[in-house]
Write a structure and sequence with these properties.
Layout (H helix, E strand, L loop, with lengths): L1 H19 L11 E4 L10 E2 H4 L4 E5 L4 H4 L3 E7 L2 E6 L4 E4 L5 E5 L14 E7 L2 E8 L2 E7 L3 E8 L4 E6 L4 E6 L4 E7 L4 E7 L13 E3 L2 E5 L5 E6 L4 E8 L7 H11 L3 H4 L5 E8 L2 E8 L2 E8 L4 E6 L5 E2 L17 E3 L3 E5 L9 E5 L2
Parallel strand pairs: 1-19, 2-24, 4-25
Antiparallel strand pairs: 3-27, 4-5, 5-6, 6-7, 8-9, 9-10, 10-11, 12-13, 13-14, 14-15, 16-17, 17-18, 18-19, 20-21, 21-22, 22-23, 26-27
């Protein structure tokens, strides 16, 4: 009888652990989280190469970056080329050595032009490079042929803020619709499915809005610990959390803050622990988060094991990668995305300096 009770207790505890811990698999469409057992403020002094790794590459852009580009709003690496959206609504292309290659500059109101760039991405299809950009209620598609030429336009009955081409037949949109925030459409712009009730705090515009993690596409819910994942294998959406536990700001807490403070809810964030950005890096995650009005960067695995450093207060990260002493370029994670590396940008401080792209590889 004692043995039976012991077996029952062991089974009960095991079941409880399974029910309360995060699943590492976000492919099945169930509510999940990505990282277990994560503890904030476990920072220690270390070098960048100790934090992330020693397999890295530095690429200087061959023009004085601040003269040619200005401020970078978003940077993508696709097939060893870098595409940079500047704050003047131009997109610059550089090759793998940092040599300037092309410029998309069609600001205007003509049929091949755009009035502003809400979002952009680059896709390689059948050996050809296509640049997609969102402008008002259009996605305009350009192909490079001695310059960027408009080859197609997808029109929508609503404003497109952000987008992600899922595959050859589907596009995922963050839209300006009244009721829903996420819309799945086909290549003709016809709506297939909608998801996520529109809540203002969930719609924080990010340079890289949609994240590819495993086989799913992640849409962050504002500054909360939650996200929506889209699963292309079954065309389903589900909710999940980045990190287990209740230390980070939940989506429910975020909504409560907004209801109480309105748009001033941002002022309350300084006293909260929240996710600013996250990237998948091999079998690890790079997490840029804020706590106690300070920034931290963690590189951890699914079980929360790894290292963390802090920006602000007593700096705990040493730059052994570039010629600069400070390492704040690590916080450029928010604006960068790469198809084969972890990408950062070090901006020039003087007119004579150049942009430096820093990439880490597994």
């Amino acid at each position: 009888m004692v043995l039976v009770k012991l077996i029952y207790r062991v089974c009960f505890v095991s079941l409880l652990v399974l029910l309360t811990s995060c699943s590492n698999n976000i492919k099945q469409g169930a509510a999940t989280c990505l990282i277990n057992n994560f503890v904030t403020e476990k920072t220690k002094k270390m070098t960048i190469s100790e934090l992330i790794g020693k397999n890295y590459k530095l690429t200087e852009l061959n023009e004085n970056g601040n003269r040619l580009i200005g401020k970078i709003n978003k940077i993508l690496k696709r097939k060893n080329n870098y595409f940079i959206l500047s704050d003047d609504n131009r997109i610059y292309q550089f090759d793998e050595k940092g040599n300037f290659y092309s410029l998309l500059n069609k600001l205007g109101k003509g049929p091949e032009e755009y009035t502003r760039i809400e979002d952009f991405d680059v896709y390689n299809l059948n050996g050809e490079v296509y640049l997609w950009l969102a402008n008002a209620n259009f996605i305009k598609i350009y192909k490079f042929n001695n310059g960027w030429k408009l080859v197609d336009t997808v029109k929508f009955p609503f404003v497109v803020h952000k987008f992600k081409r899922v595959d050859d037949t589907h596009i995922l949109l963050m839209t300006g619709k009244k009721d829903k925030s996420l819309t799945l459409v086909n290549m003709q712009g016809n709506t297939i499915k909608e998801f996520l009730d529109k809540e203002i705090p969930f719609l924080t515009f990010r340079p890289v809005q949609f994240l590819s993690i495993d086989s799913s596409i992640i849409f962050p819910l504002g500054m909360s610990n939650s996200f929506v994942s889209y699963h292309s294998n079954n065309e389903e959406f589900s909710f999940g959390n980045y990190i287990s536990g209740d230390e980070f700001l939940s989506k429910e807490e975020l909504l409560t803050m907004f209801k109480k403070k309105g748009y001033d809810y941002f002022l309350e964030l300084k006293n909260k622990c929240y996710i600013k950005s996250i990237r998948s890096f091999g079998d690890r995650f790079v997490v840029d988060y804020s706590f106690n009005n300070s920034r931290a960067l963690a590189v951890v695995n699914h079980n929360g094991q790894g290292n963390q450093v802090r920006f602000g207060g007593e700096l705990t990260i040493l730059n052994d990668i570039t010629s600069k002493k400070e390492a704040r370029f690590l916080l450029s994670l928010l604006i960068a995305d790469s198809d084969n590396s972890l990408l950062f940008v070090q901006e020039p401080e003087e007119m004579s300096e150049k942009y430096v792209l820093i990439e880490f590889f597994e």
